[in-house]
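Example record

One chain of 405 residues, shown exactly as stored in the release files.
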Amino acid sequence: MLSDLPRDLAEDVLVRLPMTSMRAVRLVCKNWNTLFKDESFTKHIVQTKAAAAAMDFLAVMVMNDRVYLMSVNLHGIDPSINHLGKLVSLTDSAQVDISVVYHCDGLLLCITRDLTRFVVWNPYCGQTRWFEPISRQSWDIYAIGYENSKSCRSYKVLRFCELSSKDIRYELYYINSKSPRDMTNPITIFPDWDIQFYARGVSLKGNTYWFAQEMCLGGDKEEGKTRYQDFLISFDFAKERFGPRLSLPFHSFMEETVTLSSVRDEQLAVLFQQDDTLHMEIWITTKIEPEAVSWSKKLLAVDMRPIYDFPIGDIAGSFFVDEEKKVAVVFDIDMRDTYTEMGSYAYIIGEDGYFKKVDLGEPSKEYSFPIMCSYVPGLVQIKRPARGSKRKRREKEKKQIIEYL
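Predicted structure tokens for this chain:
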């Protein structure tokens, strides 16, 4: 029987299984479930997966409200993208509709389509923790990050929204907390910058960065276009506050595409595309901190018009890069498909005109765009709130809603 296998043989079998099978494997027998709770074994699994990820990029993607794990192989003559499976271990309900996902240190932050709640999820460990926002807005922006302490990392979720054209309210939710006080009271600030509601922040070294523009009634005009001051804005999860403006190596117009990605959780990459010429370029930082940034030379500069005559979308245009090969993989829809059922594609773009379009095999429904983030398995444990605190927490939430709405 499987449960009678010697430990070394069981480890050799289990380490070869894909990430999408881990939940099912733990249900096979008590011995295997116990093995997955062994820290030395789980470290071995993660190290093995990380070594494999050095050859194949892992990506988590939301398509049609479901979460998928993808493998991207850029090593070889013909790069390829493969579905590894659907991630279904949101144990509360496998039918929860997810609109967007963020990654930080092996944790996924998933926002439900109806915006009534969100979940922090470690797919590898099969652990989840659900949160209900203390208030509800039409459009909220989320981020996940952490604060380093002497003994461990303290993981947090940031949620903020515009109350008006001049002020923003934000709150923090503490993932590791077992206390009823697992969130802050809402804080209102009056920034001189604006982050678009569809912008997805990128977690890097525990902090999150967004593309932002100056908040003003009008910008500089040039050939009928409006140019605003543009820059990066960060949120420092240790200091629990937004940082100063960080410079970009270009200036964009209001209608142009700017989107962010991370490189090995060490550097930030930014994709910029002009809407008229379709010229696309990608830059990578040499240094990035909440209060300082410096940029390398352009990693990639491509004239996209001869190969794809539509601009990459702000909403769907998530991407990642292979710095060594100078290749970018951009995930988007194809605007030339019918509007009610648009195709979901990956565009592999390299130097010297290299271009490959990969059909992801999942037609995108109306108003549903493929949203991707890179993923590396991790061992972060998600703590459950203490028993008996649920009623107190709900009473606190109701009180906060009355006070701050």
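Notes: Residues 1-54 form a domain with the Monooxygenase fold (CATH 1.20.1280).
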